[in-house]
Amino acid sequence: MSDKPLFPCRSVIHTMLSYTVYNRAGGQSKSVLTRDLAAAHAEQGQKVLIIDLDAQKGSVSSFYDLDYDKNDGNSDRLTLHIIDRPAGEFSDLIHNAEPGVDIVPRHEELNDLGEILDDKEAIESRGIEGNEFDRYTELFRVLKENGIPEEYDVLICDPNAKADDAYYSALYATRNVLIPAATTPKGVASIDDVFDTASNFADAKNINIGNLGVVATQANLQKGTQKEVAEELRDDHDAICYFKELSIYDDTDYAQESLFPHIKNLDRVRKSQADVLPKYRTLLSHIQNKVGSPLPASKVDEYEFWTGDDYWGDVSVPVANENEVEAK
Ligand SMILES: Nc1ncnc2c1ncn2[C@@H]1O[C@H](COP(=O)(O)OP(=O)(O)OP(=O)(O)O)[C@@H](O)[C@H]1O
Ligand SMILES: [Mg+2]
Questions:
Q1: For ligand 1, is residue 32 a contact (CB within 6 Å)?
Q2: What is the CATH number of the domain that holds 115?
Q3: What is the residue range of 79's domain?
């Protein structure tokens, strides 16, 4: 792991909280965490924009069945805005996913983002000397030029698992990373890789990238090996909380909605599902706290938050003007 800590930071898109959900390994719950945290922010009255930077099916916009019209070869798309050749208004790329949550959906052309930026770089480098094109700053420019920080309270980027141009563009734009790790050796092993790639990039660009924390995901505590890995995530990586492996995630895929409306609308919430939304709220309270905007105490009174359990131990819920809510 890099010896350089990643300090939590307010994005340079000052007015908004922004972060990238990332782990170099595939299938670590990046996209479901993006979807459900976005809904958690929306529940707190925040307006959220998700940028889906994963060209593959199964990404966060696929959960909502939001996609481009593949038959329309001329349709505008994010990649065109990134190279400053938009074919329409940026606002027309934004779709509503559920109340308070908007998405710029994935597009297959994101697969070619590297080559598209290579071409742009080649053209720009023929221009005026000293006027160098910086490929990783273009997403940030697009967001700023289109008033996203003024329009939204929260921006979440969901790149694919490769450390590619989309990932670095997301890091540059959001300046914070949240790291989900499934309770498997692969999930844990990839955490250091996130620190390395993010801190090397921060050094190279002379920017600060914040670590919002690690979250254990897909935990099946009936399996001894997974339990051990979950404990390693908690003890060695300061994982904020853990999410159990639950079949309800498959149900939300079919229902095309996040866990928030889904669980709230269930006739009967099972015991195993009861702590899921409180966990998202507690995770949210930690994220807000890390960027210096803890939730007001009134919110913690209004909703149910997770304060730990017998297995994980006590977990604090940071709130504004008070140190923390004591574990029950
Ligand atoms: N806690 C969970 N319990 C059960 N299934 C889960 C859980 N978290 C995620 N899943 C399922 O695991 C699969 C992978 O999750 P997800 O797509 O969020 O991972 P990802 O890290 O975004 O993957 P990729 O690397 O492909 O982008 C999905 O089908 C999702 O529904
Ligand atoms: Mg994904």
A1: yes
A2: 3.40.50.300
A3: 17-314
